[in-house]
Amino acid sequence: MFGAIAGDIIGSVYEYQPIKTEEFPLFSAGCGFTDDTVMTVAVARAILEGGDYAAAMKDFGRRYPNAGYGGTFMKWIFEDAVQPYNSWGNGSAMRVSPIGLAFDSEERVLREAQLSAEVSHNHPEGIKGAQSTALAVFLARMGAGKEVIRHEISERFGYDLNRTVSEIRPTYRFDISCQGTVPEAIIAFLDSRDYEDAVRKAVSLGGDSDTLACIAGGIAAAFYKEIPPAIETTARKLLPEEFLEIIDKFRKLNPIRKQAVEKRHEDRSASYST
Question: Confidence band (pLDDT; 50, 70, 90) for 261?
Fold first, then answer.
């Protein structure tokens, strides 16, 4: 989860000033968290409290309204009703990494990813983007090799992952869709040597850099099991205290607590279907 957040912060200054190189300062004066981080923390809190994804997103969105949301999602945040708007945007994928970390079966990860997406992004591509990202995080966390991850995501979701960052970079442009963001972010991870390299490769594509780095960073942290201390220390300084409290609580999930979390979500899912 923190891998996704640090990726968001690193990529934030290049969202509207895209670059096509892996050589850039990881942190500069303009770095800060964006809507990717706010919604990731919201999803984590919903998991910790066995609560409602939409309610948590609306709560955090209303308290952090200047984080760079898209116009339609901003309207959704301030509406009382939970009414999805058929979005295929990458917002469903940027916020989903906690789900890949909290649940212990592919079936549950895919189900929770769908639930977290469809409150706003109920277009099939929006749901697919969330599910593929969450599943990649889950597989990485469980120790799957990169070729297994490539195969599983490609076969299940139909994404073309048989490309490289070097092949994509020259012609890639800003793209807010799941279908134009998620495969490229996963490839940045697949091509990487370590966490930092994954984030640098994602940003270097020159697209929606904070979201690309958020998705790639979340998978990379789950796979490599570590984030360089200097990156984590710097990123933590840029986050509100309440975010840090949720992040640290989430990190302390142990197998017994995970079982309790899954049980709460089973109960919630059952209430949805009745």
Answer: low
pLDDT tens per residue across span 184-212 = 999 999 999 999 999 999 999 998 999 99
Domains of the chain by residue range: 2-24+33-261
SS3 of the chain: CHHHHHHHHHHHHHCCCCCCCCCCCCCCCCCCCCHHHHHHHHHHHHHHHCCCHHHHHHHHHHHCCCCCCCHHHHHHHHCCCCCCCCCCECHHHHCCHHHHHHCCCHHHHHHHHHHHHHCCCCCHHHHHHHHHHHHHHHHHHCCCCHHHHHHHHHHHHCCCCCCCHHHHHHHCCCCCECCCCHHHHHHHHHCCCCHHHHHHHHHHCCCCHHHHHHHHHHHHHHHHCCCCHHHHHHHHCCCCHHHHHHHHHHHCCCHHHHHHHHHHHHHHHHHHHC
CATH fit for domain 2-24+33-261, picks 3.40.190.10, 1.10.4080.10, 3.40.50.1980, 3.40.630.30: 1.10.4080.10
